Amino acid sequence: GINAEYMGEETVFEIKGHILTLRHRKTLQTANGDILGYIRTKFISLHRTHIIEGPEKNEIATIKKKHMIQLKGNAEVETADGKKFHIEGDFLDHYYNIYNDQKDKLAIVHRKLLSAYSLLTDKQTYFVDINPGVDAAFITALVTSLDEMFIRDEKDSVREKDD
Fold first, then answer.
1. Cα(162)–Cα(159) distance, rounded to whole angstroms?
2. Residue 110, Cβ density class (10 Å: 0-12 exposed, 13-18 middle, ≥19 buried)
């Protein structure tokens, strides 16, 4: 699973994967185990798409890659109530920003590339600076989806070519 911590101290959110499910659904929950929502892959779509769902599995947001093949990372997010967010940056360098439709920067995301922890555990550490008043659970779900859409896909396609 994935743990989201506040300033490296206490776990705030946990994301647990359900690999054997048809929709590759992940559960987003508080450190106490309260379910906040789900992240799932939408398989029948022109562009790679993830869905963020609420605790009742109602659709909250759709995350799509802007283009099927892209060197720089650009994705679009649209909530069920019509709000739009834009993700722009460089996923290969593990640095991107999340903006709302008015171009206000909501969060900055960057990943620490090499550390003893990541080498020993095959787990990455992301640093996410979230502006005050922004829904941290929603940003956590977005970062998890984007990691899977851009970073994990890239790793899997490289592995398949090497095999």
1. 5
2. middle
The two structure tokens encoding residue 15? 């994301």
Structure tokens at 24: 């590759």
Question: What are the structure tokens assigned to 103, written together?
Answer: 């171009």
> Which helix (H) or strand (E) element contains residue 144?
helix 136-146
pTM: 0.79
Please report which helix (H) or strand (E) contains residue 2, including its range: strand 2-6
At residue 61, what is the residue type?
A
CA distance 152 to 163: 16
Does residue 86 or residue 16 have the better pLDDT? Answer: 86
